[in-house]
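[Protein data]
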Amino acid sequence: MRPALRTAPRMKLYAISDLHLSYRANRAALEALPPHPDDWLILAGDIGEREVHLEYALAILTRRFARLIWTPGNHDLWTPPTDAGGLRGEAKYRRLVAICRAHGVLTPEDPYVRWPGAGPACLLAPIFTLYDYTFRPADVPAGAALGWAGASGVACNDEEYLHPDPYPSRADWCAARSAATAQRLAEAARQAPLVLIGHFPLRHDLVWLPLTPRFSIWCGTCRTERWHTRFRALAVVYGHLHIPKTHWRDGVRFEEVSFGYPRQRRDSHGLEHYLREILPGPN
């Protein structure tokens, strides 16, 4: 009898976000993650608050996955007051891109790549769009958004730590990023369907925050509401909300892939449990 042929394990694209490596428990979870030598991993932002957190994560994960794809979250872009003379805004973002490239990690500034594994042919498109306070009720004027959120006791450290330099505001930075990104996505979508990879939800109706609903103004921009259909998305990957969940809109799968803060996890599962399979996709 001839021995059965051994087949290679199916190559997968996984995703995780919001590792927040300033927490010791999260660093321990990262260190315990087993190798995935045939698989790719999306890091959808908020690795930590300091460059050392990004360096630490990439040093580990580039040895455990075949390839990494990164996009920044708001925490990654912080320049806290204790970081005297630290880079701010666009310069900080470019510095993080340079760190990723030094580790061979794909960023929103690099050409989109074709997924080489099983499943539908597609391009992997990391994006960075930020937010502009438009995820608010229609009767709240733009200039009143911060006051509307603050009236419910909600605040965001971005107002102090995330600087938009050289843009006048985070909303202006968001507008510039969104316009440039939409042009790139339109060109890419003519070649193949896309997997859109960002930190912030693309749609207002995905921002479900039962404890802090008015935090929505820091969660995205209405400029991206229809990107999943406009740019032929097979799937959309995001984080930021710390509420891992799968949603469907117009037949497109939206995956919130946060790991989050230790206090938010009521289980004893390790980081492996939180990896979300994006491609070839769950059965």
Q: What stands out?
A: The radius of gyration is 19 Å. The mean pLDDT is 94.
